[in-house]
C-alpha cells in the first residue's frame, strides 16, 4: 500500500473529523463541534498527515516550541489502516521536525496505553489534568 506523508498538505475540518471517527479517537474529541475542530487545526503548529491516494488515513497534531517540548495532542490512524506502521511513521516524522533537545509528550487514549511503551515511550508518573469545567481551588 502506498501511503504518502506530508507536513504541508492542507487538511479540512471535515477530513479531520472523519479520520477521528474512523480511528475511534472521536470518543474523546469534539467531532460534533466544527468551530472547536477548526480552532484545534488553526492553532496546532505541527501537523503530519498520512494519505492513501486522496483519503486522509492518519494525522499527528501537535503543539510545540520546536526546541524543548512537543505535545502530541492527537495521533489518529483509520482503524482499517492500523498495524501497518502508519502511527509510528507519523510520530517519527513529527520528531524529525523538532530540535535535538525536544521531547515528545502525550496522553495515551485508554485503548492505546500498551502501544506507546512498545515503540519506545516511557511512562511519566506525574501528569495532571484540570478539566475545563473545573476551576482552581
Give the CATH topology.
Aminopeptidase
Question: Largest beta sheet, briefly?
Answer: 5 strands, mixed
* SSE succession: EHHEEEHEH
Count of spatially separate domains: 1
Number of strands: 5
Helix content: 25-40%
End-to-end gap: 52 Å
Q: What does the average pLDDT come to? A: 94
Structural class: alpha+beta
What is the CATH architecture descriptor? 3-Layer(aba) Sandwich
- For the CA atoms, what is the radius of gyration? 15 Å
Brief digest:
The protein is of the alpha+beta class and 137 residues long. It is 26% helix and 24% strand. It starts with a strand and ends in a 19-residue tail after the last helix.
Overall description:
It is a single chain. The chain has one domain: Gcn5-related N-acetyltransferase (GNAT) (Aminopeptidase, 3-Layer(aba) Sandwich). Helix 1 packs across helix 2. It has a 5-stranded mixed β-sheet with strand order 1-2-3-4-5. 23% of the residues are buried. Strand 3 and strand 4 form a beta hairpin. Helix content is 26%, strand content 24%. The chain has 137 residues and is of the alpha+beta class. The chain is built from 4 helices and 5 strands, in the order βααβββαβα. The longest helix has 11 residues.
Amino acid at each position: 500500500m502506498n501511503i504518502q506523508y506530508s507536513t504541508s498538505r492542507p487538511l479540512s475540518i471535515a477530513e479531520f473529523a472523519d479520520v477521528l471517527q474512523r480511528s475511534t479517537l472521536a470518543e474523546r474529541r469534539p467531532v460534533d463541534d466544527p468551530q472547536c475542530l477548526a480552532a484545534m487545526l488553526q492553532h496546532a503548529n505541527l501537523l503530519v498527515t498520512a494519505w492513501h491516494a486522496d483519503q486522509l488515513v492518519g494525522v499527528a497534531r501537535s503543539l510545540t516550541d520546536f526546541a524543548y517540548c512537543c505535545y502530541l495532542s492527537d495521533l489518529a490512524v483509520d482503524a482499517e489502516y492500523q498495524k501497518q506502521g502508519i502511527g509510528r511513521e507519523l510520530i517519527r516524522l513529527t520528531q524529525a521536525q523538532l530540535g535535538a533537545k525536544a521531547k515528545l509528550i502525550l496522553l495515551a487514549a485508554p485503548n492505546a496505553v500498551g502501544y506507546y511503551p512498545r515503540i519506545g515511550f516511557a511512562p511519566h508518573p506525574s501528569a495532571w489534568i484540570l478539566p475545563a469545567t473545573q476551576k482552581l481551588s
